UniProtKB/TrEMBL annotation:
Signal peptide: none annotated. Pfam families: PROPPIN. Keywords: Repeat, WD repeat. It is a peripheral membrane protein. Residues 15-27, 55-64 have a biased composition (Low complexity). This is Autophagy-related protein 18a. Its main location: membrane.
Length: 423
């Protein structure tokens, strides 16, 4: 199920800012040393054997092919500082602030369907995809960008739907299973049976001392949460309909969930399974594309097929001081403000439908329809980053006090070398 290609050096080299240009295919992409892995002291050297995979050409940032490739998958890294784009001819890595292409790897006639980064580490997980996959779609290839080649692979014997990385684990989602592998030796540690999961829904925490994994349960609308550090499993009946999207906070203590209806988003405590808050995206059925917590769990961002990104104010983080909480947020789509909507209609409980008791978004940003967008919070205060499968990159800012329409700060097409910025 797992293999490591042998080399003269350990399979998980530690990124080094002092690496010479000749040994580093991309000297411009320097890792954040606070987020890198030091496996060199943990893994013994492997005996020599021939490489099994060909190294693609390393194209410099801004290099333009004859025609822009087709994007097959986009994803942020764990701290939303970077993002990856898997295309029908390779993959690319970008920095969010400031926006810039860091590097790309192009394969002759072969596509990549999924790319999973580990902060800014040189180790990247790849899965083949598109009409002509460069790697088998039922394998996870472990790519070392310092060596410019694959140094290991995982073979779950089923089409890979998604991959999640931690410093100590690789999590692979297939149609009805979640597989947890040890990062050091690629040994399989745990298998979890799930409800049919064609999207590969899976989320993991990122704190080193707390490993929390969330995935679909065995029943429709159910979330399973594994607290590995506590050796505890919690099942949460989140929705009556099929789960279509969820997200964990970095510490894994909170989870936001959405169903196939796409009207309500619910926030649960993952330890007790308690419903803490419910917010409403809208009244019409929608497909939720992504959910994202801010780093302090003060805000939640939601993107959907309706072409609007919403930001909600959360009341679930008691560590946020009262003076930091937004005052009198408003919503341009309704006369009912999120801060007082429930109180305004409490006397009509049982008379008006639940729709009027819902908490609405504080801020919104409207996008061109027809593309799949994902969202995350930027490192600058009160900003969100939006990525589109059409190659669009938006940076927007919201007003935490007055809410309403967000202000667009930047726009780029990340598939084109010459980007246009709108201020």
């Amino acid at each position: 199920m797992a293999t490591l290609s042998a080399s003269a050096s350990p399979p998980w080299p530690n990124p080094d800012q002092n690496t010479s240009p000749s040994s580093n295919p991309n000297p411009n992409f320097l890792p954040d040393q606070s987020q890198t892995l030091d496996f060199e002291s943990l893994m013994p050297p492997q005996p020599k054997s021939p490489q099994r995979y060909h190294s693609p050409a390393a194209s410099p940032p801004g290099f333009s092919s004859a025609a822009p490739p087709t994007v097959l998958h986009v994803a942020f890294n764990q701290d939303h500082a970077c993002f990856s784009a898997a295309t029908d001819n390779g993959f690319r890595i970008y920095n969010c602030n400031p926006f810039s292409e860091q590097f790309r790897r192009e394969f002759d006639g072969g596509g990549i369907g999924h790319v999973a980064m580990l902060f800014r580490c040189n180790i990247i997980a790849l899965v083949g995809g598109g009409p002509n996959p460069h790697y088998p779609p039922n394998k996870v290839m472990v790519w070392d960008d310092h060596q410019g080649c694959c140094i290991g692979d995982l073979s779950p014997r089923a089409a890979v739907r998604s991959v999640r990385l931690r410093r100590d684990r690789i999590i692979v989602a297939v149609e009805q299973r979640i597989l947890v592998f040890n990062f050091l030796d690629l040994n399989l540690l745990h298998q979890i049976e799930t409800y049919p999961n064609p999207k590969g829904l899976c989320a993991v925490s990122q704190l080193s001392d707390s490993f929390v994994l969330a995935c679909p349960g065995l029943q429709k609308g159910q979330i399973r949460v594994e607290h590995y550090s506590q050796k505890k499993t919690k099942f949460i009946s989140a929705h009556d309909s099929r789960i279509t999207c969820f997200a964990l906070t970095l510490d894994g203590q909170l989870i936001a969930t959405a169903s196939s209806k796409g009207t309500l988003i619910r926030i649960f405590d993952t330890v007790q399974g308690t419903l803490l808050q419910e917010v409403r995206r809208g009244a019409n059925v929608a497909e939720i594309y992504s959910l994202a917590f801010s780093s302090t769990a003060r805000w939640l961002a939601v993107s959907s097929d309706k072409g609007t990104v919403h930001v909600f104010s959360l009341k679930v983080n008691s560590s946020i001081s009262e003076e930091e909480k937004p005052q009198n947020p408003s919503n341009s789509d309704t006369a009912i403000t999120p801060s007082n909507s429930s109180r305004s209609f409490i006397k009509f409980k049982g008379v008006l439908p639940k729709y009027f008791n819902s908490e609405w978004s504080v801020a919104q940003f409207r996008l061109p329809e027809g593309s799949h967008y994902i969202v995350a919070f930027g490192h600058e205060k009160n900003t969100v980053i939006i990525l589109g499968m059409d190659g669009s990159f938006y940076k927007c800012q919201f007003d935490p006090v007055h809410g309403g329409e967000m202000t667009q700060l930047e726009y780029h097409n990340f598939l084109k070398p010459a980007t246009e910025t709108t201020m």
